[in-house]
Amino acid sequence: MMSDVPIRRLVVSDFRRIEGTRELPFDAPVVLIHGPNGTGKTSVLSALELALTGEIRSMERQSDRYRAHLPFLGQSYATVRADVAEYLQAGAPGTPLTVNGARLEGTPAFNPSAAKFYAERCYLDQSSLGRLLDLYQAREGSEQSALEKFVNELLGLEKLDALRTGLSDANDFRLFRKLAAGVDESDREAKAAATELKERAALRAKIRSEVGDARAATLEAISALEHGTTKGGSDMELIEFVGLALKNDSTHAKVAAAESLHQELIALGGRISALLGRPTTQRIEETRIALAAATANKEAWETTVGVKVQEWEAKAQAAGADLRSKPRVAIEQATSLAVKELETDATVRSQAEATGTKLNAGRAELDVLHTRLADAHEYSSALIEGLAALRSVVGASNTCPVCDRDFTEVGQHSLLAHVDTKLAELTDHGQQLVTLRDERDQLAALVSRLETEHAQLARRVLSADKQQAVEQRHANLVELTSEVEGIEASKLNGADLTRLVRDLQQTLDDLEAAASEERYVRSELDRYAVLLGLTAEPASDSFQAVSAELLETAKAQVAHLADKAKQYRKANVEATRLAAALERESTAVQCLAEIAENKKEWDDRVTEAKRRQGIAREVHEAATQARTNIVHRVFTESLNEVWKTVFTRLAPNEGFIPSFGIPSATKKTFDIKLQTTHRNGEAGGPPQMMLSAGNLNTAALSLFLALHLAVEPIVPCLVFDDPVQAMDEVHVAQFAGLIRLLSKQNDRQVIIAVHERELFDYLALELSPAYEGDELITIELGERAAEDDQGVTRHRWEPDIAITN
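The structure assignment produced for this chain is given below.
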């Protein structure tokens, strides 16, 4: 029996009110925990919940930072560990959970499903008992309440609700077509095909109207042609008739020829207008006489005055005048150039003479410097060499090696000192030689520059012949200047004579051309009259009238042919429009047939979809009816019955019995309300309004037990923290009997913590082992925990000696 319980042991260290490490055994069908307030009963059960599930729900509802307050005061962390049955384990057995501030490290003892079942249906903490009914009905946002989740789990309607949810859209075809694959597309395509069929039918009607209009316009156009008419036959025969007429059409060439003739007549009219403004034959003779006289005058001028002008121009050109400008300007420019040339030569001569004088003076001074420099160099070199040789011979003696005299006779110093003084003086003379050389070099550079400048000036000086030629040219220009006024007048007279002869010759040419133009115009008028079918004999004074008549006839012919060509073009355009309309009509008819076939295909699919929708609707209605039956059966026969049984067992004298209000079975989720019903069958209000505080706790406790018993337990245990609050002796006795029944007959491990000593002793007596293998563990906190057994006592079943004997 001991090995079958789900919870085996709890080890807790420095957790809330528990200082140090405590190991508490739970491997018995019933475990009773006792201790005065503040000794750690709730801490033990909270540690057990944390070790099993990894959280403490009652604390988490108060603050999400509750883990920071779990370690014992002054300790940085706490540890808990629970040993459970193997089929409930989540990880390696014996692994502790460590709470360090807000962190939780380790793996809970229970697997996720067992941990959820324990937290919701096995453990009833002290703080939740008084408000259990409210907690069960509370919801956050759109989430289900805890009571709704329990009921859904109890009913097992997940698959049925999933079926109803999946088929709910089948009640409305607008939703159903989005639910089933291809239905929405089929419905959309069927409607689109119907719309397109309607549009195409309207388009075909419009095209048929266009065909009729094009046919009428084509018949109207060919009626004006000279190829007969066609009233019968099909549209294609009409189009072929127009094509044959256009093939034999020569109007275009005739129009071009008529327009060309009309343009030629317009041009001839312009020539006739110009001819009428030209002079007569009498003017031609007068012009010839005037031309002969002008020519004679020009020839006379050329043989007399012209010869003099040519001679003057020859002299002017020889004197350097540029006769491309006027004579006066040319002579003045040439004279100015000659004068400037003479002035420049005089200036250059003067500069050359001055430079020659400077050059001669420089050369003389340079010769003197050369002489002085040679003499000084010769004297200095010989003397310095002799004195240097003499000094080496003299030594310390004052006797001259040349004259053998004693130097002290003539001087105050020694001979050697005298020689040294002379050598120093000669050194100063050498510096003077350097100065003479610098002066020589500077003077030589000046003489060289003057020689170069004098040579350049000499080259620019005119020779005697050239100077004489320039002076002669200047004299000739002065002479020509005196004649220039007469020459200019003569040249002007000659130019006038030449221009008169040229103008008269041009006038004579124009007059003679006019005479030939008249003959040409007369022949052209005759030719155009023949082309236009007229028999006019134009006279010279009626050229303009005949031209106007011919022009009007040609214009009328162009208009007639252009109108005829327009009719051909119109017939071509209308026949083309008729052919295009017939082609569009054929395409539209074919398209209508295709769209109609396509629409039928999509309509068949939509019809099939609606048939299947009907089947889905029937299945949905059947699932709804089945759900309704299940809900009513479970609430009336199972859940409410279990709650009623547990509650009436705990509170046999209470008149109002709490129960679930049966929710609407057509909804996916339950909006469950708690109510009460009197024993006489009369409906009452909610439990919070109809029950006393004690019976309200009893209702909550009985509801908790009912929900635990309503399903197959994942974790077969019940854990209570002081569950008999505000209960009288009758309720306590009934509770003890119920717990005994759950433990002994329903195989539930029961763990209960109480603070009253009398209640603890009573429950220990009532829940004592009743048969072989049965066991009870009592755990006493507070002062008993300091004893050798740490307040833990195992009560095993022993046979009654009085009965056995």
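Interim note for the steering committee: The mean pLDDT is 76. The longest strand covers residues 7-15.
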